[in-house]
Amino acid sequence: MTATPDTLRSSRNSRVGEIINALKAAHDHGLSACQKSLREMPEYFMVTRVGAHFAEKFSNFNYHLEASVAEILTKARVSPENQDSLQKYSELRANGRFDLTLFTRKGGKPAHIIEFKKGTKLESLKKDIDRISLLADAVPQGSRLETNYLVFITKRNTERSIIEWDERLQEIVKLSLIGQGHITNNITCSVRDVWKSPAEERELTNGKRHDVSPFVVVIAEIRCN
């Protein structure tokens, strides 16, 4: 597919920016069509909206929903021996699935994983950090899958800055496989951007006012450097 003025090429900044743009649009759609904010919508709503947005905005991406971990490892050319060695890590959930996988249009190769979470419970975020880190650690050097994303949404701590969110994230990273020294390569997990919903929004619904509580969307990048 040839890039047009309406499509983008993938870069670290453009991917993060378009995740934010996709979720802003999803929030607006939820309010107008469902009378619910993004935080009130189910988790899969974020997944499907971001996937469709990326396929529309980027000239080099298709996407799969719920692609299996085993499928991604094989298509990323992780050797059977290395796949077997990963079985000792229950965190990878070899029989599990990733929320959203971006694939290259031209070669059909897995490019980036994006996982989504509602809430900031430490154990929940740590599990996703662990499984994405194991994937980024296992793929061949130079693979696009060395860079992936964790997106979480919460109504708590809406006044935290990007730096403060990253400091909170690093507390979780210290307890992860990265922090415990179980990852071979130099994998980092850091907050790349934060979107704070407007402090107060109201949508007319059957003549009534719909109050929307503020919330925060945090984009973390898990990357092999």
Concise summary:
It contains 6 helices and 8 strands, in the order ααβααββαβαββββ. With 225 residues, the chain is of the alpha+beta class.
Give a count of the beta strands, DSSP E runs of length 2 or more. Answer: 8
| C-alpha-based Rg, rounded | 18 Å
SSE class: alpha+beta
* Unreliable segments of 5+ consecutive residues: none
Q: Percent of residues in helical segments?
A: 25-40%
- How are the strands ordered across the major sheet? 1-2-3-4-8-5
Strand content: 25-35%
Number of domains: 1
Global geometry: globular
Q: What is the chain-wise order of helices and strands? A: HHEHHEEHEHEEEE
Q: Please outline the major beta sheet.
A: 6 strands, mixed
Q: Whole-Å distance between the termini? A: 29 Å
The overall pLDDT average reads 90
Total count of helical runs of at least 4 residues: 6
Question: What does this protein structure show overall?
Answer:
It is a single chain. It is built from six helices and eight strands. It is an alpha+beta fold and 225 residues long. It has one domain. A hairpin with a 5-residue loop joins strand 2 and strand 3. It is globular, with a radius of gyration of 18 Å.
Give the secondary structure arrangement, pairings included.
Layout: H1 12-34, H2 43-57, E1 61-68, H3 69-75, H4 80-86, E2 97-104, E3 110-118, H5 122-138, E4 147-154, H6 162-175, E5 187-196, E6 201-205, E7 208-212, E8 216-224
Parallel strand pairs: 3-4
Antiparallel strand pairs: 1-2, 2-3, 4-8, 5-8, 6-7
Helix pairs in contact: 1-2
